[in-house]
Design brief:
The protein is an alpha/beta fold. The protein has helices at residues 4-20, 39-42, 67-70, 87-96, 109-122, 159-169, 189-192, 195-199, 208-217, 235-238, and strands at residues 77-81, 101-106, 127-131, 144-150, 170-183, 221-233, 253-263. The radius of gyration is 18 Å and the shape is globular. Bound molecules: S-adenosylmethionine. Residues 11, 15, 59, 61-62, 82-84, 87-88, 105-108, 111, 133-135, 150-152, 155-156, 201 line the site of S-adenosylmethionine (SAM).
């Protein structure tokens, strides 16, 4: 595995090129030597019928529909970690309404600029976009009702730190609804060492049990898996980065995308 700073830079470059690309409706733009797109294979879910959906903010980068399980109420303060172009934020903003607010947090400056431009074009004023990292959320303790996130925590190297930050900013009784990739078993080293696989939400994914324990160890309760999707990584995709003789012909790498919900315990009288 690469050092944290180096990997962070590569992830930022990857998402920066997507934000700056003319043809943004594809997560594979920076990986397009062969025209193969991994994430659009089967990871992103269709939100297009939901109130608040805005096509210009949908870059096909998600792996679930966390807003569907978030239980956002009018007046809620919502935080979206790794907000990208604002796709989930605009849908959540419709639910939290004029008396609520959605904060989108992202560590890629070009994504923050794109999401702000999108909010301006759409005239949406109950959404704010903040530059920052999941491992060090620039918000005060106990200030958020609901945290959502779509296909981001797998990219974070210190997932325990990110989940403890999410716990810190949530109000007691607050909820999380998070879609993310998890691996079925430990991924082969040849996949882990390629940064592009990390940026494409594959090799940074934790094993499912380990991932669920990180959430429980952060202090969350009532953890539930609300949706599970299995997807396979085809050998043609791996072949973009690996020499032919390193691709195992008889192995298909399976991964899951999970959408989980959980709560920060309420203060008891
Ligand atoms: C796979 S994209 C998902 C974007 C968005 N959630 C969506 O569904 O369209 C990952 C996003 O998370 C951001 N990101 C990656 N690591 C992050 C971190 N540690 N803290 C905050 N944002 C991060 C990236 O810049 C990128 O915009």
């Amino acid at each position: 595995m690469k050092p944290k700073e180096e990997l962070g830079k590569e992830i930022r470059n990857y998402y920066s090129s997507i934000a700056l690309s003319e043809n943004r409706k594809s997560c594979c733009t920076p990986l397009s030597q062969t025209g193969t797109c991994f994430t659009n294979l089967d990871m992103s879910d269709d939100y297009s019928e939901k109130p608040g959906y805005e096509e210009l903010a949908d870059l096909g980068l998600g792996c679930g529909t966390p807003v569907d399980f978030a239980g956002i109420k009018p007046g809620n303060m919502v935080l979206d970690i790794g907000s990208g172009a604002g796709n989930d934020c605009f849908i959540a903003a419709r639910e939290s309404g004029a008396n609520g607010k959605v904060i989108g947090l992202d560590m890629t400056p070009e994504m923050i600029s794109l999401s702000k431009r999108n909010a301006g074009k759409l005239n949406i004023d109950n959404v704010e976009f903040l530059f920052g990292e999941a491992e060090s959320i620039p918000l005060t303790n106990n200030s958020i009702d609901v945290v959502i996130s779509n296909c981001v925590l797998n990219l974070v190297i210190d997932k325990a730190k990110a989940y403890s930050e999410i716990y810190r900013v949530l109000k007691p009784g607050g909820r999380i609804s998070i879609s993310d990739t998890v691996s079925v078993k430990t991924l082969p080293d040849e996949i882990k060492r390629i940064a592009a696989y990390h940026s494409a939400c594959i090799s940074g994914a934790a094993e499912e049990q380990e991932y669920l324990e990180i959430i429980l160890n952060a202090g969350f309760e009532n953890l539930e898996i609300r949706k599970r999707k299995v997807f396979e990584i085809p050998n043609e995709y791996l072949g973009q980065y690996l020499p032919e003789n390193e691709i195992s012909k008889d192995v298909t790498f399976k991964m899951y995308s999970l959408t989980i919900t959980a709560e920060k315990p309420a203060i008891k009288d």
